[in-house]
Amino acid sequence: MSEALPSPYPLPPHFKREQLVLQEAGCCSWASIAGLSDAALNQLSRRGGALERQLRKLRGQAQLVVELQLEPYQAALLLYAGIASSRGLAQSSPQQLITQLGRLERSLTGLAPARISPADVRDWISRAQRHLSRSMK
After folding, report:
1. In a domain, 36, yes or no
2. Which of 81, 121, 129, 135 is the most buried (most CB within 10 A)?
3. What average pLDDT does the segment 21-42 reach?
4. Inside any domain, residue 101
Protein backbone atom coordinates (compact mmCIF):
# COMPACT_ATOMS: atom_id res chain seq x y z
CA MET A 1 0.00 0.00 0.00
CA SER A 2 1.29 3.45 -0.79
CA GLU A 3 2.09 5.89 1.97
CA ALA A 4 -0.69 8.29 1.01
CA LEU A 5 -4.06 6.81 1.81
CA PRO A 6 -6.61 6.88 -0.99
CA SER A 7 -9.69 9.03 -0.64
CA PRO A 8 -12.57 7.25 1.06
CA TYR A 9 -14.90 8.58 -1.62
CA PRO A 10 -16.89 7.46 -3.42
CA LEU A 11 -18.27 5.04 -0.86
CA PRO A 12 -20.43 2.08 -1.92
CA PRO A 13 -24.02 3.03 -2.83
CA HIS A 14 -25.46 1.68 0.46
CA PHE A 15 -23.45 4.42 2.26
CA LYS A 16 -24.80 7.27 0.10
CA ARG A 17 -26.47 9.23 2.93
CA GLU A 18 -23.51 8.68 5.23
CA GLN A 19 -21.11 9.94 2.54
CA LEU A 20 -23.12 13.14 2.11
CA VAL A 21 -23.19 13.80 5.86
CA LEU A 22 -19.48 13.06 6.29
CA GLN A 23 -18.52 15.30 3.38
CA GLU A 24 -20.72 18.12 4.68
CA ALA A 25 -18.97 17.77 8.06
CA GLY A 26 -15.58 18.13 6.38
CA CYS A 27 -14.46 14.51 6.79
CA CYS A 28 -12.43 14.14 3.64
CA SER A 29 -9.96 11.41 4.62
CA TRP A 30 -9.84 8.00 6.25
CA ALA A 31 -7.98 9.59 9.16
CA SER A 32 -10.72 12.16 9.77
CA ILE A 33 -13.38 9.43 9.75
CA ALA A 34 -11.27 7.21 12.02
CA GLY A 35 -10.97 10.05 14.55
CA LEU A 36 -14.69 10.63 14.99
CA SER A 37 -15.94 10.13 18.55
CA ASP A 38 -19.12 8.30 19.50
CA ALA A 39 -20.71 11.67 20.29
CA ALA A 40 -19.74 13.02 16.86
CA LEU A 41 -21.22 9.95 15.16
CA ASN A 42 -24.42 10.40 17.12
CA GLN A 43 -24.61 14.05 16.13
CA LEU A 44 -23.88 13.29 12.47
CA SER A 45 -26.57 10.62 12.41
CA ARG A 46 -29.16 13.27 13.24
CA ARG A 47 -28.33 15.14 10.03
CA GLY A 48 -29.36 14.14 6.55
CA GLY A 49 -30.74 10.70 7.33
CA ALA A 50 -27.38 9.02 7.98
CA LEU A 51 -27.62 5.93 10.16
CA GLU A 52 -25.39 5.83 13.24
CA ARG A 53 -24.88 2.08 12.72
CA GLN A 54 -23.54 2.74 9.21
CA LEU A 55 -21.32 5.58 10.45
CA ARG A 56 -19.87 3.26 13.10
CA LYS A 57 -19.07 0.68 10.40
CA LEU A 58 -17.30 3.33 8.36
CA ARG A 59 -15.34 4.51 11.40
CA GLY A 60 -14.29 0.92 12.13
CA GLN A 61 -13.19 0.46 8.54
CA ALA A 62 -11.31 3.78 8.66
CA GLN A 63 -9.56 2.82 11.89
CA LEU A 64 -8.33 -0.44 10.35
CA VAL A 65 -7.18 1.43 7.23
CA VAL A 66 -5.32 4.08 9.23
CA GLU A 67 -3.96 2.02 12.13
CA LEU A 68 -2.84 -1.01 10.13
CA GLN A 69 -2.35 0.49 6.66
CA LEU A 70 -4.87 -1.90 5.14
CA GLU A 71 -6.51 -1.30 1.80
CA PRO A 72 -10.13 -0.15 2.24
CA TYR A 73 -11.50 -3.37 0.69
CA GLN A 74 -9.39 -5.44 3.11
CA ALA A 75 -10.72 -3.50 6.11
CA ALA A 76 -14.27 -3.88 4.78
CA LEU A 77 -13.84 -7.66 4.46
CA LEU A 78 -12.60 -7.85 8.04
CA LEU A 79 -15.59 -5.85 9.25
CA TYR A 80 -18.03 -8.11 7.44
CA ALA A 81 -16.22 -11.09 8.95
CA GLY A 82 -16.85 -9.63 12.42
CA ILE A 83 -13.43 -8.05 13.06
CA ALA A 84 -14.13 -4.44 13.98
CA SER A 85 -10.89 -3.31 15.61
CA SER A 86 -7.15 -3.79 15.79
CA ARG A 87 -7.64 -5.51 19.15
CA GLY A 88 -10.10 -7.99 17.66
CA LEU A 89 -7.74 -8.73 14.79
CA ALA A 90 -4.74 -9.11 17.13
CA GLN A 91 -6.64 -11.74 19.11
CA SER A 92 -7.80 -13.68 16.04
CA SER A 93 -6.74 -17.19 15.17
CA PRO A 94 -5.05 -17.04 11.75
CA GLN A 95 -6.56 -20.32 10.58
CA GLN A 96 -10.07 -19.46 11.72
CA LEU A 97 -9.87 -16.02 10.10
CA ILE A 98 -8.52 -17.47 6.83
CA THR A 99 -11.44 -19.90 6.74
CA GLN A 100 -13.97 -17.19 7.59
CA LEU A 101 -12.60 -14.71 5.03
CA GLY A 102 -12.43 -17.42 2.38
CA ARG A 103 -16.12 -18.22 2.87
CA LEU A 104 -17.01 -14.55 2.81
CA GLU A 105 -14.99 -13.91 -0.35
CA ARG A 106 -16.55 -16.89 -2.12
CA SER A 107 -20.03 -15.70 -1.19
CA LEU A 108 -19.22 -12.27 -2.62
CA THR A 109 -17.19 -13.21 -5.71
CA GLY A 110 -18.27 -16.74 -6.55
CA LEU A 111 -15.52 -18.72 -8.18
CA ALA A 112 -13.15 -15.78 -8.71
CA PRO A 113 -9.66 -16.35 -7.27
CA ALA A 114 -9.29 -15.33 -3.64
CA ARG A 115 -7.72 -11.91 -3.12
CA ILE A 116 -6.76 -12.64 0.49
CA SER A 117 -3.98 -15.15 1.12
CA PRO A 118 -2.99 -16.87 4.37
CA ALA A 119 0.20 -14.77 4.32
CA ASP A 120 -1.93 -11.59 4.16
CA VAL A 121 -3.96 -12.68 7.17
CA ARG A 122 -0.88 -13.53 9.23
CA ASP A 123 0.65 -10.16 8.27
CA TRP A 124 -2.50 -8.28 9.33
CA ILE A 125 -2.61 -10.07 12.68
CA SER A 126 1.05 -9.28 13.23
CA ARG A 127 0.46 -5.60 12.37
CA ALA A 128 -2.46 -5.47 14.79
CA GLN A 129 -0.37 -7.04 17.56
CA ARG A 130 2.44 -4.52 16.98
CA HIS A 131 -0.08 -1.67 16.93
CA LEU A 132 -1.54 -2.78 20.24
CA SER A 133 1.85 -3.17 21.88
CA ARG A 134 2.86 0.35 20.73
CA SER A 135 -0.39 1.89 21.96
CA MET A 136 0.02 0.26 25.40
CA LYS A 137 3.43 1.87 25.99
Report:
1. yes
2. 121
3. 96
4. yes
